[in-house]
Design brief:
The protein is an alpha/beta fold and 339 residues long. Helices cover 39% and strands 25% of the residues. The chain is elongated and about 70 Å long.
């Protein structure tokens, strides 16, 4: 008997490899998913976060029953693959989901209304009006931003108990992106359900997330509340001698140091508090008290910096890249009109 909340999702050793039959036979192929395992209680909004190539889209497609994998995918204890009863409760939406492109948007929406018994036509009409979508056009005639908006309408209006959103904000300008997050927050309050949102806009999404799923190289390497991540990664800085001494007191090994830089007699380390004390966890409060008066400064990082650090990127050198990417996103929206 499944004791998890309704519409819970379980991943058990989910594995999928790229490459054709011959390549897989000779080399095993390239792992897109590598034993991904997680239990997602129902009725929560999850942020699926990871670097490009981490396997996020493949995982969402597997969760939607669109690609066959090794391992088990279960909704409320029932298998997803080729199970109409379960598949009727799931939608995967995003600008790159392979919807039919040579049909008009209004036809696509009418098909969706028949496909999902939970479809809310009044809500779909309200979203179309808010986004000023021209539903008389074919999907192939729309810009990337417009396709994203169509995917938002599909994903939210379907009202599925399991709603999977694969970067639905791509190509949106700031105004429409803000509107999407507002719609999502209001909709979750109106109809609580299990939502998994794949995103690179971590700071924007953080306000609506209940939990974070960290995916790295096809494996789920973290699952928990936002605070589990923001209170897990700390930056320590000070003289080389002072930092060395405090790391020695903790018994920090190489696995706990996410980054380490020394310059002009100063050392700065990014520390994973989950394994900081000789491989055991240490709380941020304990560490802060321990460092008082030692000359070593400590601060916790935000969610975006925590994800960068936990996926093998230096949070300081990456900030300029993140800022540049955001500028490029804005420029892209201006060029496309993000309509």
């Amino acid at each position: 008997m499944n004791s998890l909340p309704a519409h819970s999702y379980e991943l058990r050793q989910v594995t999928r490899h790229f490459g054709g039959p011959i390549k897989r036979a000779l080399t095993g192929g390239t792992p897109a998913l590598d034993g991904a395992t997680a239990t997602l209680p129902g009725g929560r909004v999850y942020g699926l976060i990871g670097r490009n190539g981490a396997g996020k889209t493949t995982l969402l497609r597997a969760m939607a029953g669109q690609v066959r994998v090794k391992g088990e995918l279960l909704v409320d204890g029932q298998p997803v693959w080729d199970n109409p009863e379960v598949l009727d409760r799931i939608i995967l939406a995003g600008p790159d989901v392979p919807w039919p492109t040579e049909v008009k948007v209004k036809k696509l929406l009418s098909v969706a209304a028949v496909r999902w018994a939970t479809w809310d036509q009044a809500y779909a009409d309200a979203l179309i009006a808010d986004y000023q979508l021209d539903t008389s056009k074919k999907l192939s005639e729309l810009s990337r931003g417009q396709r994203s908006l169509v995917s938002v309408v599909l994903g939210l209006a379907a009202q599925c108990p399991i709603t999977l959103l694969d970067e639905p904000y791509l190509g949106l300008d700031v105004q429409n992106r803000e509107q999407f997050y507002r719609h999502l927050m209001e909709d979750v309050q109106r109809n609580p359900r299990t939502i998994v949102l794949s995103t690179h806009h971590i700071d924007d999404a953080a306000r609506i997330l209940d939990s974070v799923i960290l995916l790295d190289q096809g494996r789920v390497t973290g699952l928990g509340e936002l605070e589990d991540f923001t209170e897990r990664v700390a930056v320590l800085s000070g003289s080389v001698a002072a930092v060395d001494a405090q790391l020695g007191r903790l018994g920090c090994g190489p696995s706990s140091l996410l980054s380490d830089a020394t310059s002009a007699g100063l050392r700065r380390v990014t520390l994973d508090l989950a394994v900081a004390a000789s491989g055991s966890p240490v709380s941020a409060r304990y560490l802060r008290d321990m460092l008082e008066g030692t000359g070593v400064r400590m601060h916790l990082v935000d969610l975006e910096q925590a994800v960068l650090a936990l996926t093998g990127r230096d949070i300081h050198s990456s900030q300029a890249q993140v800022g540049e990417a955001r500028v490029n996103d804005a420029n892209f929206s201006e060029v496309t009109g993000n309509d």
